[in-house]
Design goal:
14 helices, 35% helix
Length: 390
Amino acid sequence: MPRTAVKLSKMVAALSCIFVLITACASPKKTQQSIRLLTHKDFHLPEEALTDFTKNTGIEVLVFVEDDATSMVNLLERAADNPVADVVLGIDSLERRRVTEKKLVESYRPIAIDRLDPSLVLQDAMLTPISQLAACLNHSKSRYEVPERRLDQLPDPENIPLQAPTRIDDIFDPRYAETAVIPDPLSSRLGVYFLVALERLYPEDIEGVTPWPKLVDEMLRWGMEVAPSWEEAWFSRFQPSAGPENSDTRSLTWGSSGMPAVSVRFVPELPDEVDVAVLDSGCVKVVNYAAVIRNTPNRRDAGRLIDSFIEPLFQYGVPDRYGSRPARTDIVRTEAWRRFGVNVTAIPIDEWRIGPLWEQWLLTWQQIVKVIASGEEPLPPVVEVTLPSQ
């Protein structure tokens, strides 16, 4: 080979090596995969389960938090064409219809769907049930204890103690209403579930008359207290550990069947018992769902994240701030829930009927509160008069 050709060959080889080195240096450093999760403040996220998901998959979970389920769905609707997240978690029964009708999410069937409570699973697989809540009346047990007396001692007719309530209808009795505190429906989701329970008891009749607003007006005038949040209602005004001697606190409140377990969440050691009883009457079942957000560019990893939501580690830690239960039926509950949680008969919310209505109920509630605050007198009862036949 001529000397000139040899030099050219060596030069080409050297340039090729330099090109390879430059390319290697210029190639971007591999970044960690991530998935965007949208949820809200009222839904408890088991951080340990999210950390485990990242450890097993290498996918980092970026969490975005809205104030409540409604503001979260509002954001999904505004950003439908350019989604702000890949997965949404915490859609409750009240928002199910809007999410489905506006096609804000995509159908996805989790791998372990057969592990979920079959009564919660939706046929269209648009939403995956993650937890369930039974919203009910709670009352203090000690405030209704009958004082001991001798066998030959007659009860004092002037001081007969009030018996513990047994039905949700008891709250419409002035004696119970004046001892009750409920979360404000305008600022608390649990308060909205209270309105759902009232409307179920006294729905609109065939003539279009709705009885429950008048009952609300009466309960408020009798002394039922409204707290700005469920935390204020439960931990400050109800105080299940206050005991019968603290007459300043309330003895009846709206919570959930898991609220007795919530009351011991922050104590160092679990007590032998709690001063809370749950009424198995008029309870409302609420389901919390997760879903793949429509138009997400990361549908595959979104599905993997939802799969992790129904794995044992997540389900064990999923009970939200209201004292809900996992959607799986085979998960061992926390020690607090096992000892103090109560199983009740809760009727599911009819999302397709209530969906467009519950926000109107909030306006009705707001109007009632405004009228009472202004000092206006209640409307007189309607007296039906039967005219004699001619």
